[in-house]
Amino acid sequence: MLRFKSLGSGSSGNATLVEATQGIHTTRLLIDCGLRLRDLEVRLQEAGTAMAELDAIFITHEHGDHIGCARSLLKRHPIPIWMSQGSWLAIRDPHWQALEPWIRIARDSTTLEIHNLQLTPFTVPHDAREPLQLRCSNGDRQLGVVTDLGHVTTHVVQALQNSHALVLETNHDPELLERSNYPHFLKQRVEGDWGHLANEASAYLLRRISHAQLTRVVAAHLSERNNTPELAQRCLSDALGCNPDDIEVATPNTGTPWFTV
Question: Considering only Cβ atoms within 10 Å of each terminal Cβ, which end of the chain, N or C, has fewer?
Answer without folding.
Answer: N
